Amino acid sequence: MTETKILPGALIPNTNQKFICKDQDLIVANNKTFFTSNFEHNRAISIPIAHHDGKYFLNDTELQELEQNQRIIFKYKNNPNGSTGDIAGVSSKKNRVLGMMPHPERAVDKDLGSVSGLTMFRSMISGF
């Protein structure tokens, strides 16, 4: 989505140059979206990550625009890959698209380690 300019910035290799695959704590930075309406604002959730090119890079102007327009949806609690501003998820200008490196689809069953992803999918269903 960054390459098509639906979302600003770019995804580049992680700071440590290694593939990272583990559960990661995120903070819900904006719960007023179609994707996050069932979350509490600033709630910590656990979502798996699995990426090598997961570092989200933005210039200062792009970061300011995202912050001013509340388009930062998720932030890493402990940034594992060096993403600008600890960003884990952002929305498009009209909030119709969410781009994130963590994998909520892998957090939908207790047997998988987390059900935090279910809340995101329930938010989307209740938004219809």
Describe the structure.
The protein has 128 residues and is an alpha+beta fold. The chain has helices spanning 60-68, 116-126; strands at 10-12, 20-28, 44-51, 55-57, 72-76, 87-91, 98-100. Strands 3-2-5-6-7 form a five-stranded antiparallel β-sheet, with no helix packed on it. A two-stranded antiparallel ribbon has the order 1-4. The two termini are 24 Å apart.
Descriptive tags:
5-stranded antiparallel sheet; alpha+beta; 2 helices; 128 residues; globular
Could you say which overall geometry the principal axes of the C-alpha atoms support?
A: globular
Order of strands in the sheet with most strands:
3-2-5-6-7
SSE sequence, one letter per element? EEEEHEEEH
Strand content range? 25-35%
Summarize the structure.
This protein is an alpha+beta fold.
Break the fold down into its secondary structure elements and pairings:
Elements: E1 10-12, E2 20-28, E3 44-51, E4 55-57, H1 60-68, E5 72-76, E6 87-91, E7 98-100, H2 116-126
Antiparallel strand pairs: 1-4, 2-3, 2-5, 5-6, 6-7
